[in-house]
Amino acid sequence: MLKELEHIKQGMLDAGYICDDNAATVLFLAQALSKPVLVEGPAGVGKTSIAQAFSNMKNIPLVRLQCYEGIDEAKAMYEWNYKKQLLHIQAVSNQSLNVTEVEKQIFSEEFLLTRPLLQVITSETQTCLLIDEIDKVDFEFEAMLLELLSEFQITLPELGTIKARHIPYVFLTSNATRELSEALKRRCLFLYLDFPSPAMEESILRLKIPALKQDLARQVAESLQEIRKLELKKTPSIAESIDWALALVSMGIMELDRQVIVKTLNVLLKYQEDIDLAKARIPGPAPRVSPMVQ
Amino acid sequence: MGSIFETIQVFIRDLRDCGIPIGSSQLEDCYRAISLVNWSHEPVFYSALLSTLLKDSALLPIFNEIYMRHFHPHPGNPAKRLGALQEMMPELPANQKGHGDGSEAVGDSGQSGKPVPRGRSSKAPTREWKDPFSQDFYSLTPQDLKRMENLIPLLAKRLVSKTVIKRRREESGALDHRRTLRQSMATGGVPVEIFVKKRIRQKPVIFALCDVSLSCLHFSAFSLALVYSLEKFFRHVRCFAFIGETEEVTALMRKEQPYNLRAQVLYDTKVTGESGRTDYGRSLLTFYERYGQDLSHKSYVLIFGDARSNWFPTEPQILKQIQDRVKRVYWFNPETVNEWNTGDSSMSNYRKYCDKVFQTSNLDELIKALAEL
After folding, report:
1. pLDDT tens digits, B233-287
2. Could you tell me the pTM of the whole model?
3. DSSP per-residue letters across B113-143
4. Which of A121, A287, A291, B214 is the most buried (most CB within 10 A)?
5. Distance (Å) from the C-alpha of residue A277 to the closest C-alpha of chain B?
6. Closest chain A residue by Cα to residue B22
7. Which of B268, B321, B317, B313 is nearest to B292 (CA)?
8. Which region among A140-144, A177-181, B277-281, B311-315 has the lowest average model confidence (pLDDT)?
9. B172 touches chain A (CB under 8 A)
């Protein structure tokens, strides 16, 4: 079993994602138990990318459903193509067809617009489904997802129940802005992603930006540790630290010092208050963050 | 050392004791998961338990604490111990297959095993089960208090989602003719989709008055923590503490966790007044004198307290003046209704001038009351 974990870690690494033991175990269990994974954590720690990397690793298509307030079945599952149906009725109106026949015609798959969820269920090959920011949806929609997540099937009133040909791998991400229903949570495996340790962040940076020198990567990772300790409105996450490192590399900077940090803070922090606070708190002039460059 | 079933069962019961909801299907998942993974590597065992039993990051600290207590007693070599445990349970997958329901499987194997193995667990079953949600604010031990503090992030989230639903329902207003008609053009004049206008509501300013005398302290602290969780629905939240006099503590609350209220307020302010005893009349008076000019028709005044005024004059007319100036006055009383107006409680005097009074003697009731804001 440990070998399989190593296998997953290596596979994810090849797909551009560094997994720790916890994430790898959950991915392993998700496959073994055929259960959806609910990924929670602060914004920008790689909740969405874990699904992307997983689909890359498995070499299967990723179907993404971006949730937002007010999303409904029509946007997520399926919709009847009203306009096409109306046109069709007009077109056949001079042919003397009886009503049931026309009804049968206009409620066939030809007039069905498939949306991400139906697409996953009817797919010929196995797919990976990413339901992004599930905490944004309404409660009705959340309840509707239950059938999909536990039985991997969808019921359409006009066509009946459609069962998935291949059980998809499902990832749900949540920023924990509100509590999800117990029923939904019970059906999922839980994975909490937090800000990474300095060592992990360093290796992520090195993986994402090959041109980044090791010393600089370490300095970046260490300064981020310090910055995250501040009481900020928006704590910078991995996405921001990659941006920052990329900016440093393209500026041709070899070593991080106070001046450089202050100059480039706006890449890392998105609020003026945060930038002011960080400026005030970054200690002394000289290379405080790089004591181990030897 | 007992069978692994018992060990995990005790572990799960401790989790449930702390308010972490675990259903029987989760138990089944948990057993299936741990039978699949290799325990000699501790992080793997930990993740298997975590991913199947816990579903909310707000409860992660509680989970970790309990996990450490159960499976991490010898920091030197936890791996060895878990490895040894796994060797003792080769029959798990077979055992598990026979049962449809996870909880049944657990119950059976727990009883068929040796009589209770460890000191902890032999005490545990007889321990009285206390639901932290329905526990009286007056009967809290320090452990209960800690447990409830741990639950606050979860409750806060619950409260927010409740409020969001309510707001959304109230939001939909009259029919938006223009949009509906415009959209109906696409479907040949048939209004297939109906659009409604959204109602815009004004965010109120909250004035929270907390009795921080010994009798109401815990209650006030929890209430404040929860009021703060709703901050985004309000324009502004201002807090005031009183015993014998009222003083603003908003700035203090910015720095401190609400449940540190008890230590901080008494230390930093002069709320005790001259007598050092709870005096609702004087407190209301000082509140109105010092901060009355800030009250407006957009303000909500929330009072958290038991209305026990030590026979000092209660000055209900001040509350009436406050009520005249603000939109709503709500009173949250931690005593049950039949204790109101007994002894030195003067709830009936104040009640006349409140838009609503709530009995909030435990967390459940408090949540329900606050959801009405």
Report:
1. 888 888 888 888 888 888 777 766 666 666 777 777 777 777 778 888 889 999 9
2. 0.71
3. SSS--SHHHHHGGGSPP--GGG--GGG--HH
4. A121
5. 16
6. A186
7. B321
8. A177-181
9. no
